[in-house]
Structures are given as C-alpha cells and as structure tokens.
Known about the structure:
Elements: E1 4-8, H1 15-26, E2 29-32, H2 33-41, H3 45-52, H4 54-71, E3 75-78, H5 89-92, E4 93-99, H6 102-111, H7 115-120, H8 128-145, E5 148-151, H9 157-167
Parallel strand pairs: 1-3, 1-4, 2-3, 4-5
Helix pairs in contact: 1-9, 2-4, 3-4
This protein binds shikimate-3-phosphate.
Amino acid sequence: MSDNIILIGFMGVGKGRTARSLAVKTGRFIVDTDDLIVTAVKKKIRNIFSLHGELYFRELEQQTANWLEQNVCDTIVSTGGGFFMVDNLKKLGRIVYLHSSVEAIFDRINRHPKSKTKIKKRPLLQDMEQAKRLFETRLPLYREVADYEINIEFRDVDDIVDEIVDSLQLQ
Ligand code: S3P
C-alpha cells in the first residue's frame, strides 16, 4: 500500500487548503492532480475543457492516477472534484471525502475576495443550477468510495486537519 492520503470532494470545498495544512502537520509531501495536469499539457484547466472537451480532461486524470499509482507514496494528494472517477482510485491510498452542503460551498465561493477568478477557472461552475445537480449526482458516489468522510462545514482548517490526523492515525 502506497499510504497516500487522497482528498476528494466537490469543487470549492477546500481540498487544496486542507491538503496544504495536512502536509505541514504530517511532514508529508503534497501533490495536486489539477496542477500535475496543467504542468503536463501546459494548458489551463478551462482551456483544456474548451479546446479538447471534458472527456479528454478525464483521460488526463486517468493518466495522472496511473502515474501516481506507480510513483508516489506517503504523500497528501489533493484532487479535482471529478478525479474520484478514475478506475484505480482505491489503489492510490486512503480516500478522505471532505463534505459540505452545496449551499455552504456556493456561499463560501461567492464570499471569497477572488470569487470571480475562482468561478471563471472552473468550467463546471458556470451554471449554478447545473453545478447543484452535479453535486447531488456525485454525493452518493463520493460517499461510496470514501474510506473516511469528514464534515468540514463551519469548521476551521486546523480543526479539520486534527480530525483527519487522529482518525487516520497519521502521527
Ligand atoms: C472538476 C473540478 C476542478 C477541475 C475541473 C473539473 C470537477 O477541480 O478538476 O474543473 O469535475 O469537479 P476543483 O475541485 O479543484 O475545483
């Protein structure tokens, strides 16, 4: 077992922020699957979607998952909101699902000082009604693949990280 910690969850839930704190707290390295893809193809996520379509992006996520399986261990992996659909997810490490209600996620994004940029860079957040339906479709799927679910709503990042460290016995 690679003993990576794979953070999954909906767009804007705070996977990146949680991953960074978790990495600091546990002394592990951190990688972000979207960053790996952007570096590999030298294009922004929204340009990958607009130039090549979502299916191509999902293929890039699968290639990233294959690479992680072969090359990465003892690392905190922050993922894009749809990365959990790769076929070897369970081989990558322990899966932690960060849960929040969709209303709280949208509220958090809208109140962020850089909310416009945050929305612009996410092709699947352009229509909030569609995004809400996507959340509802994915929720049972996130729960099904998760080894551990943590409710992050109204909690600060230190508190969230402490719960993950204790529950997964990371120290
Ligand atoms: C996606 C989430 C995004 C990014 C891409 C697709 C999704 O990452 O991978 O826009 O399908 O939910 P974040 O979850 O970091 O926003």
